[in-house]
Amino acid sequence: MSIEGNMATDSECLNLRKLYGDRYRIVLDPAAEYEPSGRRDPWLFIIPCKYGEIYPHGGDLLAVMVVGVYKVPEMRKLELPSHQNGDGEAVFLFTQNQFTQVAKVVKPRKRRRLSEKDRGRLAEMGGAHLFQSKKHGVQITPSVSRRVSGCKPSSGISCSGTGVSGPTAESGPQH
């Protein structure tokens, strides 16, 4: 199969989030910050890897930028067409069918997954520290969703009825 014959128009590319988002971590290119549709634009999706990154090249092609003087020769053994070459890095083009071979070399970052048991355990551990300020010894109840103006523990102003409580709520900081 000739890779050169697979080029498409500028508007078509593979959507990494749909294809690999369930297994690998997908991040946005820094340029997405300046694009109005950047968070949804599949052209700006990147799969970060231990030895580079994978990104869409156009049509049904993907590109992999490989960084590392030992990994570039390893990629050359796959006989992928080289798109760009540098001193210690190179960019290769490949198709979806070759993704597994490329992934073995560049080692894409896997998406973190928590079991329901671990998720519950972490939520329980975090709940004990929710809404607590170590600086002033003040505890804010979850019903207070914004800072109450004029009610600062160190100001000596009464905070009663605002959801703010603690040893410094009435008398200011205790040193």
Detailed description of the structure:
- It is a single chain.
- Helix content is 18%, strand content 22%.
- The chain has helices at residues 16-20, 71-76, 99-106, 116-127; strands at 27-28, 45-49, 52-58, 61-67, 82-85, 89-95, 132-133, 138-140, 164-165.
- Mean pLDDT is 76; it is low at 1-10, 143-150 and 162-172.
- With 175 residues, it is an alpha+beta fold.
- A hairpin with a 2-residue loop joins strand 2 and strand 3.
Q: Judging from the principal axes of the Cα atoms, what is the shape? A: globular
| Assembly level | single chain
Treating each run of at least 4 consecutive H or I residues as one helix, how many helices? 4
The CATH architecture term of the largest domain is Alpha-Beta Complex
The residue fraction in helices comes out at: 10-25%
Strand order of the largest sheet: 1-2-3-4-6-5
- Mean pLDDT, nearest integer? 76
Number of domain units: 2
Secondary-structure element string: HEEEEHEEHHEEE
Range of strand content: 15-25%
Unreliable spans: 1-10, 143-150, 162-172
Rg from alpha-carbon coordinates: 26 Å
Structural class: alpha+beta
CATH class of the largest domain: Alpha Beta
Count of extended strands: 9
Note the gap between the termini. 75 Å
Major beta sheet summary = 6 strands, antiparallel
CATH structural fold name of the largest domain = Aspartate Aminotransferase, domain 1
